[in-house]
Structure prediction request, 469 residues.
Amino acid sequence: MERLFDVIPSGFFNCLSSGSNNGIYSDCLQIIYEQYDREISYRIARSNIRDALASYLLENHVEFLDGEEDSGSRKNYNDLANGIIRKFSSKEIGWLEEENDDATYEKHIIMTEQGILLAEFLQQLRRPEREEYSSYIYNIYNVLHNEEQWSQDPYVEGLKNIYRNAKLLSKALKRLSTFIKKIIERMVREESLESLTENVIEYCEGNFIREYARLTKQQNIHMYRSFIRSKLESMQSDRVLFELLVIGCAVEEDLEEEAAKEQVLDMIQRTRGFLSEDYDHIMKEIKHKINVYLQIAVGRARFLRNRESDVRGNVEQTIKYIAEEMQELEWKVELPDEMEALFLLDRNEFIDRGSIRFPRKAQTIRKQTFADLEEMTEEELEKARRAHEKEAYNPYSKEKMKAYLELVMRDEKSVSSDKLPMESKRDLLCTMSAVAYGEENGLSIQLKDGYVETNGMILRRFEIIKGED
Prediction:
C-alpha cells in the first residue's frame, strides 16, 4: 500500500491544524479555488488571486497572520495576500505552484492536483451537494440498454462504469441512513416546541425526501433493477463477452489473466448482489428509521406539551391529601395566603381552547319568535333550481362514464388503454373515472404488462372488457 505522505508534502495539512488561523486559511483556499470557475484550466494570473485574497482580508478585518515576519511596520492587505500565496506555494504545503509566462513574463498561479482535491473536499463539507440517488440506477440502465456504446471496450466503458455507479449509489444510501440517524438523535434533545418544529420542517423540506421517493417501488425504479440484473447475468453467461471483459480488465488494471477473471466475476456478482439484496435491505432500514423519526417527533411533541402538566393519578392523590389536611386544620372555608402557591399545578405557558373547559348550559326558550314567510316568484324558483343543478352536476358520474365507454367502444368487445384518448387532462380524468366505475357498469378491467406515460403520470397498461349480457 502506498503511504499517504509519500504522495503529498509533509506539511500539507499544517494550515488546517488547530490554531487561530485555520479558518482563515481554509476560506482563502476556497476563494482561490472559486477563481478558477470561469477559467479553462487551473492556471490564473497571480494578481487576480492576490486581489481576491486582499478583498477577503479587508472585508473580515484580518490585520495579522501567525507566521508572518514582523518587520515593525504595518502591512497592507496586498502584502498579507502575497504572504498567503507564498505560504500555499511552499514545498511544505504544496497547495499552489507559481510559474512565469515565457512570453509576457507575468507570474501565474497553478493549483496542484492535491490542492484541487482538498478544496473540493472542504467545499463538500461546507455545502454538501444533493445526491441524485435515482440517477445512478438510470446511468447503469442506460449503459446496459445501449450495448453499441461500449461494444469496442466492454470493460472500461461497460462493466467498470456500471460498477462505479453501483458503488456510488451504495455509499450515498449509507450516508442517507447515517444522516437520518443524526436527525433522530438531535430530535431527542429538543427542549422546546419551537426547536422541535424547526427540526420537523428541516426534515420535511430536506432534499433527500424527493430523491428517496424516486427509489421506492411506487416510482417504478424496480423495473430498471430487473432489467439490470438480467443483463448482468447475461454478461457472466456469455462466454465471448466475458472473455472480452477479462482481456480488458487485464490491460486496464495491469493484472494477470487469472486475477483479471476473478476481478471481473467479483464486480459482476457484487453489483448484482447489491441491486438484488443489499439495496432492499438498505431501503428497508432507511424506511424504518424514517418511521422511528416520525414516531419520536410525535412522542416528543406530546412530552413537551404535557411536561409538568396535570398527570391524572398523581394530581388526584395530591388534591385528596391536601383536602384531608385542610379539613383537619379547619382551612376549608378560608385559605391562608401562604398556601395559595400549592395550587399552581400547571406552568401557564399558553392558554388555548383545549386548556379551558366550558360548562354546558341548557338552552331555554325565553321568548317566542315568529318569522314571516316570503313567497318566491317563478323566476327566482327557476334561478335557484338552475343553481342547485349546476352545483350538483358531476361530469364524471357513473352513468356518464358508462355512456362515454359505449361511445368509445361501440361494437367492440374490449378496448386497451393504448386506444383510449388520454392526451388532455379531461380525457385522462374520463378514462380513470370510467375504470373506477367499470365493475359497477358491468365491465371487467384486466391489467397488462408495461406502463404508459401521459400528462406527467405513469399508469399501468390495462384492458376494458364488456361483460356478457
